[in-house]
Specification:
The chain has 113 residues and is α+β, with helices and mostly antiparallel strands. The protein has a domain of 48 residues. The protein is built from four helices and three strands, in the order E-H-E-E-H-H-H. It has a three-stranded antiparallel sheet, with no helix packed on it. Helix 3 packs across helix 4. The longest helix has 10 residues. The chain starts with 15 loop residues before the first strand and ends with a helix. It comes from Oryza sativa subsp. japonica (Rice). One of its GO terms (biological process) is methylation. This is Os05g0313900 protein.
């Protein structure tokens, strides 16, 4: 969806405000009001505290392109040196994960066991 900005909020200087997503009632409404009524955007992040974060920003949202090089998609890709200590996956586990990803071939294989 296209966000419409008030004239003072569009363009530089850009801002990027972060806060915990599950804040007290009314906190995000107050923050939005002070930042040109821009609604928060949830952005997935990896945080040791495992808290969901929301952001309010006036960064361009049209024609976004990924940051290169592309970041890892999984924890094991991000921490390659630790892979030797991760438990191995059984054939059954791999088949179940494939099912969750929507692969029909794995489902047929699992059912024929």
């Amino acid at each position: 969806s296209t966000e419409t900005f008030l004239k003072p909020a569009f363009g530089p200087p850009f801002f990027y405000y972060e806060n915990v997503a599950l804040s007290s009632k009314g906190v995000w409404t107050t923050i939005s009001r002070f930042l040109f009524d821009i609604q928060p955007e949830f952005v997935g992040s990896f945080c040791a505290a495992a808290r969901k974060m929301d952001y309010i920003h006036n960064l361009p949202i049209e024609n976004r392109s990924p940051v290169l090089p592309l970041p890892p998609n999984t924890i094991s890709e991000a921490f390659l040196p630790t892979n030797m200590w991760w438990p191995s996956r059984s054939k059954k586990t791999v088949q179940l994960l494939a099912i969750l990803r929507g692969k029909r071939e794995a489902y047929r294989t699992l059912c024929s066991c």
